[in-house]
Amino acid sequence: MVKRLDSYELEYGELFAKVIRFIERKMIPIVLRHAISGVAHINTEDAVLGDPMALAMLIDVFSERGYHAVVDIHRVEVPERVNLSSGAITCVTKKVYRIQIRFQGSEIRRG
Could you confirm whether domain 2-102 is CATH 3.30.110? Predict the structure, then answer.
């Protein structure tokens, strides 16, 4: 694992920095809000995840820190144009990355 993370820094430094910034700015605040449950679900369309290497980096970073990360790519057809004479609808495909982060939840002490 450490060897893989080191190789990301050496071989893909710019992309790795973008992934780390994405994790710090967009994911960690959500994970912290779900500290009690131990599960955070995050949906994003962020372009940095368009690179398959970025997805591998994201999963490896969380795995190295003791989290379990799962990424699912959900493709959604969004209507863009309608041809009024033929009725044909032109769509664009939007990618939504559905990320699940699982970790040991906090214990709640009562009374």
Answer: yes
